[in-house]
Amino acid sequence: MTGSKANYPEDAALPAFRKDQKLDLLAERFNVAQFVSFAPSEAGPDQQFCRLAEVAPNTLYDNVSAAIEALFARSAEATINIRSFSETQSQSREFLYAITSVEDAVSALRRIASEGAFSIANETINVSDGGVSGVAMGNLVEFRPDSTPRGVERPGFASLPLEWASAIFKTVYGVDAGLEAIGNARVEFSVHPERRGWRQSHTIFWEYGKYEAVDRSIEVSWPNDFSCLLGDKVYGLLIANLIGVPVPRTTVIGRRVAPFAFGIDTGSSESWIRTSPVVQVPGKFTTTKGWRDPFKLVQAEDPDGTDLASILSQQSVPAFYSGAAIEASDGEFIVEGARGSGEGFMLGSVAPEIIPQYVRLALGAVKERLSAHLGSIRFEWVHDGEKVWIVQLHTGASQSSGRDLVPGEADQWVVFEVAQGLEALRELLRTLPPGIGLKLDGAVGRTSHIADVVRKANVPTRLI
């Protein structure tokens, strides 16, 4: 090491900062991926900027090899990336990913310099470590796992208000992502379970720029790639918890994210174990009171590891009435349930009962609170005699109307006895020829899992 270069040119009339200058400027306020940058010169790569953990900013190394050795020594993945760019255009020319040796990196840097291009060598940060990457601008945050920040240019990203996104990152990863500090700007960022970057924190900022206000609504909906990472049931409960409706204290044991907990203490020492599939599959996977070996449960129900994202241990709610609520296609708010914990009702083995008026009023108030943020919703609920608890939440109205669970005409109608159960219904739906509709015979609720299954299959279905 031989000293430090001045950070920035003093000429205020410069039309724009170079890509590595912008990165160094960003590092003054935020955590960035560890990097060393180089400019082309007759002698080869000429070091420009440097941000390495536990090293003074912009320390100059004796030569290119020494700088790259220092970068490799601090790269948790033991690999580095190199991107090249011109002085006048910030867009990358060439990008080399996950270089594994100092020799290969130095050779690439010398070649790039000989072509008259600038370069940035930075630590490789694994985007599939269970964290997320995305873009924050104004009050809008869009993000997804297993991708760079540019991944939000493809469908499937999560979209949340800034306050909600920060709260979810705090709950799931246990860290303050620091997104509130960006002010009126647009930033590309990533959040990681383990510390990374020159400041060794959990959030990496990749780009920072002026925020141009656009008419871009925040559509809070799922499934999305992040809800699939955590589990559909988990994501819905996180959103309900953010809105402030009661959610039982829940501990999440995920496949790809370390255990975390959220929700309100119900006062009960009893618990439920709930499976959380990647996407909703009504009534297929286990939900049961009491503790069961989660390892055996997952192995038995998802041996390939593709269907279940997580297991939930949830505090029990002393159940006075339990059930589900949906919004029909005509706007009707349908509330159904039965006394007790409600498993029989949801599975179609117990007929809906008359719900007391004060329970209906409490459910209506919860519905209004949720709908104010999410629009049309569907949810499963438990009433303990005093208040409503949410145990599952989804967005969107149901296509049902009246006794038509799935509207539509059919060439022929097949009668299905609800008493045969959910799995028999699933098997029938798998083998049902086109043009055939269903008539359900039995006391089945329009909000039950039986109804959910036929709606997902989109087969014309009526209640007898």
TrEMBL record:
It comes from the Bacteria. This is Uncharacterized protein. It comes from Rhizobium laguerreae.
